[in-house]
Design a protein that fits this description.
By secondary structure, this protein is of the alpha+beta class. The protein is built from 2 helices and 4 strands. A 4-stranded antiparallel beta sheet has the order 2-3-1-4, with helices on one face. The two termini are 13 Å apart. This is DUF3343 domain-containing protein.
Length: 78
Amino acid sequence: MISQEKRLIITFRCTTDAIAMEKSCKATGAPGRLIPVPRSISASCGLSWCAPPTSRTALEKLLQEQDLDPEGIYECII
């Protein structure tokens, strides 16, 4: 059985924003990766950024710096 743990999930309104987040995170070395949006959350584009909850402040700052407007930011067990 796969172990579940608490993760930070950032959803986006469109795929373009999700890809921009991935590009920004790779450029700055920010943690996380693109995943399909968990079933417990709904989002328009179907992609979300998944990272450790401890990175929330840094990722929120990155979103603001890159002028990316997330659909939502959640902490959930996946």
